[in-house]
Design goal:
The protein contains ten helices and 15 strands. The chain has helices at about 85-100, 115-125, 160-175, 200-215, 225-230, 245-255, 265-275, 285-305, 330-335, 340-355, and strands spanning about 1-10, 20-25, 30-35, 45-50, 55-60, 60-65, 105-110, 135, 175-180, 215-220, 235-240, 260, 370-375, 390-395, 400. The structure holds zinc ion.
Length: about 400
């Protein structure tokens, strides 16, 4: 099965190629990229898609995904914890909503149900339900007695042995990444972001056990000590890091070949803009969000200049920040972190693909055909990616999720 997409501009994950091109897909991979003029003629057994000058780009990668946080642009939930059957309906829907909005890969930052993301990732891979490629996780772990992110955690005993058990449980479940809540969360309990929820011994044990089990670690970390512990555990990705001082920034840079950073501003901006009804108090969230955005506006550009791989993705899934708006992060990177549109696109595609550890995030010969056809040029204006109607085609692994109209 071959698909030829012709008369297209291409953003390849790094830059916009300068003339009109064509891309040939065979099976699940890109087999050739060529100037439109030298594209093969339509042949039997080949599907030809007319680009009409639109822009082909890699599918986007959400680096901080919570598919079990219920709310999406299609359905808002006002409670955070859902009954098990409803949770499953929401997670399956959210996977499809994320793909519908141009995200062909997602790295989970933790789930609200145990085992649910493993089941979802398998169902997506088997083609039983539409969704992005998913690195699944399990319940976010914060230790016993700690005021972490409230997730109904059941494996929260203290000490290195407890955390080793948790890692081995995760391995048996078939997850890809463990989520450790190393810092508290100001938005939930003011002042708690300063708290460090794990000991050095626990984080060292987590790192060692995860390496042995072949699992990745994702960390929620705000302050220098939490960042230090996350790095010591060999975290694949650090979320937030808003209060990093110079030493913490240096430590992140020293680890930049192994560790990614996702500041996750989407939730902060949405909290600042939210106008909740009188019975919902978001004042702590707003204060915390304003403070973090101010710090990140300095931190993110400084780390980017030093070569840190910084990713988009931002805690979508709250009623005020529903799944489906994820592409907003690109515009936030432009508006608040000094990114050019092309740099924001690079973060959302090529760098995100590196986080996934898969041949995704680039339009490149031999790579997986996770591709979007955009009505317009996102290297001029990334805000167009927020309009689902302008995503004319969505392809994942060579299969069309959304067929372009003629
Ligand atoms: Zn999160």
């Amino acid at each position: 099965m071959k698909t030829l997409i012709r008369n297209i501009k291409i953003f390849d994950g790094e830059q916009l190629l300068d003339s009109e091109h064509a891309v040939l897909v065979e099976g699940e991979r890109i087999v050739a990229i060529m100037p439109s003029a030298s594209a093969p003629p339509a042949a039997s057994g080949m599907t030809v898609l007319e680009g009409n000058g639109r822009t082909l780009m890699p599918g986007m990668v959400e680096a901080h995904s919570h598919l079990t946080w219920g709310s999406s642009v299609e359905k808002i939930y006002h409670q955070f914890i859902l009954p098990a059957d409803e949770l499953k309906v929401a997670a399956w829907r959210n996977a499809r909503v994320l793909l519908d909005h141009g995200f062909t890969s997602a790295y989970s930052a933790g789930a609200l149900g145990d085992g649910i993301e493993v089941e979802l990732a398998r169902a997506i891979e088997a083609g039983e339900t539409p969704g992005p490629r998913l690195i699944p996780s399990t319940l976010e772990r914060s230790p016993e007695g700690a005021e972490g992110v409230e997730t109904g955690d059941v494996f929260n005993g203290r000490g290195p042995e407890a955390i080793r058990k948790f890692v081995s449980y995760c391995k048996d479940q078939g997850i890809g990444s463990i989520k450790l809540v190393v810092s508290g969360e100001d938005a939930l309990k003011p002042g708690s972001a300063k708290e460090v929820l794990y000991t050095d011994e626990e984080m060292e044990a987590a790192g060692q056990a995860a390496r042995e089990a072949g699992l990745w670690i994702a960390t929620h970390a705000y302050y220098p000590k939490a960042i230090e512990l996350a790095l010591k555990a060999g975290a694949r990705i650090i979320y937030h890091a808003s209060y990093a001082d110079e030493a913490a920034a240096d430590a992140m840079i020293a680890a930049k070949d192994a560790t990614f950073y996702a500041p996750s501003p989407g939730v902060s901006i949405a909290a600042l803009e939210a106008t909740p009804p009188p019975h919902i108090d978001m004042s702590h969230m707003k204060t915390s969000a304003a403070e973090r955005m101010e710090l990140e506006a300095k931190l993110v550009p400084a780390l980017k200049a030093r070569g840190m791989r910084i990713l988009i993705g931002g805690d979508y899934g709250f009623p005020f920040n529903p799944i489906g708006r994820n592409a907003r992060d690109l515009q936030i990177f432009v508006d608040h972190f000094g990114y050019s549109p092309t740099e924001a696109l690079h973060a959302a595609t090529a760098l995100g693909g590196e986080l996934m550890g898969l041949d995704v995030g680039r339009v490149k010969q031999g790579w997986l055909a996770d591709l979007l056809l955009i009505d317009g040029d996102p290297t001029q204006d990334v805000s167009i990616l927020q309009d689902k109607a302008r995503i004319a085609m969505i392809m994942k692994g060579g299969a069309l999720h959304k067929v372009p109209s003629a």
